[in-house]
UniProtKB/TrEMBL annotation, chain A:
Identification of the protein by name: Uncharacterized protein
Superkingdom in the source lineage: Bacteria
Species per Swiss-Prot/TrEMBL record: Hyphococcus luteus
Automatic annotation (TrEMBL), chain B:
UniProt organism field: Hyphococcus luteus
Family: Belongs to the sigma-70 factor family. ECF subfamily.
NCBIfam families to which the protein is assigned, alphabetical: sigma70-ECF (TIGR02937)
Residue intervals of the RNA polymerase sigma factor 70 region 4 type domain: 105-155
Keyword Transcription regulation carried by entry: yes
Protein name: RNA polymerase subunit sigma-24
Length: 79, 175
């Protein structure tokens, strides 16, 4: 019987860090993380980066142009 | 006092919180202790949670608890087993490095191309789903994911001091 190889990409790792990994990919990604130390390291880096950006939101949004752009997009979503 | 944190939401955040704690402490036991302390603190301070992004809030608490621990350890000195000493020194050096890293993130973020800043703001800071961001920016979901990945790569490269952003910074072009 042919063995099915499940490819796990960097985008899967990103999605896991963002809590947006599709349910059907979760098992494959978690299995991959158990065997690939590099992937786990990438995941931790993504977590760290996400946490830093979220914690630094007030400082990042001191950039008025960016803040206004994001607000405009969010208003567009709400409309 | 009424808590604004549900157990289910908290449980969802624990794996990521543990990975974060592990990265800070570089030690499995200390990471578990840090998660425990952070969750206890979060539950005690649940009335201060604004209800927007639990994960981000927990990470902030975790970082503060960790920094407090480091400060108090520095003040009183830490008793360690001889076998633990090299790892302990390594952990301390990495912690200082990590703190500096956080301080560099804002500077690096501001140097990113406009599309990178916007996509990171929408998805990572505002917690938007990939599909929502794709619809908002009128691009395919795959494009959102690849832009996000490139943005993170650039940011990490810049915070590691290896490169500089090269693209333009015209925010008006995004909306």
């Amino acid at each position: 019987m042919a063995k099915v190889v499940e490819f796990v990409t960097r985008l899967d790792i990103d999605a896991l860090a963002d809590d947006q990994l599709a349910e059907e990919r979760e098992d494959a990604v978690r299995r991959h993380l158990q065997t690939d130390g590099g992937a786990l390291e990438d995941l931790v880096k993504m977590d760290m980066l996400n946490a830093a950006l979220q914690a630094l939101k007030p400082a990042i949004y001191r950039d008025r142009a960016l803040r206004e752009t994001v607000e405009k997009l969010l208003r567009r979503r709400a409309a | 006092m009424q808590t604004q944190i549900s157990t289910a939401e908290l449980n969802d955040c624990l794996p990521a919180l543990h990975r974060f704690a592990l990265q800070l402490t570089r030690n499995q036991d200390r990471a578990c202790d840090l998660v425990q302390d952070s969750v206890e603190r979060a539950l005690r301070k649940a009335h201060l949670f604004d209800g927007s992004n639990l994960r981000s809030w927990l990470f902030t608490i975790c970082r503060r608890v960790f920094l407090n621990q480091i400060r108090s350890e520095k003040a009183r000195g830490v008793a360690v087993e001889m076998d633990d000493a090299p790892q302990s020194r390594l952990s301390s050096a990495q912690t200082q490095e990590q703190t500096m890293h956080f301080n560099d993130v804002v500077d690096a973020f501001q140097k990113l191309p406009v599309n990178d800043r916007v996509i990171l703001s929408l998805v990572v800071i505002e917690g938007m789903k990939y599909e929502e961001a794709a619809e908002m920016l009128d691009v395919p979901v795959g494009t959102v994911r690849s832009r996000l990945s490139r943005a993170r790569n650039r940011l990490m490269t810049m915070t590691e001091g290896e490169n500089e952003a090269e693209e333009g910074t015209n925010l008006a072009a995004v909306v």
